Amino acid sequence: MDPEKDIQMMRQALREAQKAYEEGEIPVGAVITIGDRIIARGHNQVERLNDPTAHAEIIALTSAFNFLGSKYLPDATLYVTVEPCLMCAGALYWSKIGRVVQGTADPKNGYLHTCGDNNPFHPKTVLTRDVMMEECATLMKSFFQSKR
């Protein structure tokens, strides 16, 4: 695990989150990498698609599966700006993704709210938390303040 690479890739996920913000979506962004290559990107599109499952992680996972022609991602890393919800954690579990790197926590809707300290990911998935936490949290706070 390379902290500099984690920051570089989280910046890419933040770009995706900014797209969601500009589209009036909750600003969550995700990228999936294998090695140093981004193979998939996603940002929330729930409002655009009228689909409560169109979370950044799901969009990115579907794109990665299609790119690789595989339903498993053991060599991949997901960088996501906000702690995945339980639905996304379940999809990540089934993908057998190798690593999840998250930016900031989501105490209201994140998997920890439902699962507590129980790991919702595949047993081989490595989790890294709080990468660029302040930047990721600031974007979320800014979005919700603009809605009030």
UniProtKB/TrEMBL annotation:
Gene3D superfamilies, sorted: Cytidine Deaminase, domain 2
Keyword Protein transport assigned: no
Keyword Repeat attributed: no
Enzyme Commission number(s): 3.5.4.33
Catalysed reaction, written as an equation: adenosine(34) in tRNA + H2O + H(+) = inosine(34) in tRNA + NH4(+)
A single MF term (Gene Ontology): zinc ion binding
Stretches assigned to the CMP/dCMP-type deaminase domain: 4-126
InterPro entries, A to Z: APOBEC/CMP_deaminase_Zn-bd, CMP_dCMP_dom, Cytidine_deaminase-like, tRNA_aden_deaminase
Cofactor: Zn(2+)
Record note on cofactor: Binds 1 zinc ion per subunit.
Family affiliation: Belongs to the cytidine and deoxycytidylate deaminase family. ADAT2 subfamily.
Free-text function comment from the UniProt entry: Catalyzes the deamination of adenosine to inosine at the wobble position 34 of tRNA(Arg2).
Name of the molecule in the record: tRNA-specific adenosine deaminase
Organism: Dinghuibacter silviterrae
Lineage: Bacteria, Pseudomonadati, Bacteroidota, Chitinophagia, Chitinophagales
Originating gene: tadA
